[in-house]
Design brief:
With 268 residues, the protein is mainly alpha-helical. Helix content is 45%, strand content 5%.
């Protein structure tokens, strides 16, 4: 019995001297859970009501018209119904760059496994969109008045923000249809000069290597369909070489009903 006790003491002593194994931590999820704050099949009106405050706040800080911010978000996220908006809080379809240190998700777009940014909340997406525009190619836009939505819409198209030849028209049409210009606020010359002084110190003149790659890449293609009279999910699916099921999944649709003017994501 004494020998057994001595043996157990030796075993315990040796085990206490052995290096302890580190616990293997579970890697973070690729995507946060679906955004419960956004209703399924969100309408443009519901989306605007929810995010106009953020757009106004960003306008006051950066000078980007709130109407432009909201119109771009409506287009890029399909009224907040896209998978990226609901599951990644990415309302502007912004892709990863070499400087991005946050979470990511892979999704077919220009390539089968394009990398998109994942945000903790919609506010982060709206802020990152503002900072994304602080590049030399968009610098001229910040010289415009922050209530000049027409100038901003045309300037974004001219700078190559999107490939759709009607991109400026789409933005202007959305702004005027939903009276988004009511959220834009004029500024005095003194206020404008002060804002420009701050913004132009933040404009990225050149990000080594990354800037060259971004300039070389084609602009992001539009992948949104605006529902017109006579459209059905079947006719839209044929037009974009998708299945009806694909469109439902991409836009979180439960049934077959769609409405005039509704924005549908039509790219996987």
């Amino acid at each position: 019995m004494q020998k057994l006790s001595l043996f157990l003491i030796i075993i315990i002593s040796l085990s206490s001297c052995l290096p302890k194994r580190e616990m293997v931590k579970r890697p973070p999820d690729r995507l946060p859970p679906s955004n419960k704050n956004l209703p399924r099949n969100s309408s443009a009106e519901a989306y605007i009501a929810q995010f106009k405050g953020i757009a106004i706040s960003e306008m006051n800080q950066y000078g980007i018209p709130a109407s432009i911010k909201l119109a771009q978000a409506l287009l890029e996220s399909g009224n907040g119904n896209s998978a990226l908006a609901r599951n990644a809080n990415n309302h502007f379809g912004i892709k990863c760059t070499s400087s991005w240190q946050g979470r990511t998700v892979l999704k077919s777009d220009d390539n089968p496994n394009d990398c998109f940014r994942v945000y903790n909340n919609p506010e982060e997406s709206f802020r990152d969109h503002s900072e994304f525009l602080l590049r030399k190619r968009y610098a001229a836009l910040f010289e415009l008045n922050k209530n000049d939505y027409v100038g901003w819409a045309r300037g974004l198209k001219k700078a190559g923000y999107a490939t759709n030849p009607r991109y400026a028209e789409l933005l202007i049409s959305l702004i005027e249809r939903y009276n988004l210009q009511q959220y834009d606020v004029a500024e005095t010359r003194k206020e404008k000069a002060k804002r420009e002084e701050v913004i132009f110190t933040e404009i990225v003149e050149e990000i080594p290597q990354e800037a060259k790659k971004e300039e070389a890449q084609p602009p992001v293609a539009m992948a949104i369909h605006e529902v017109k009279a006579g459209d059905t999910l079947f006719s839209i699916s044929k037009k974009y070489n998708l299945s009806v099921s694909d469109i439902k999944v991409l836009n979180n649709l439960n049934g077959d009903g769609i409405s005039l003017g509704q924005l549908l994501v039509v790219s996987k």
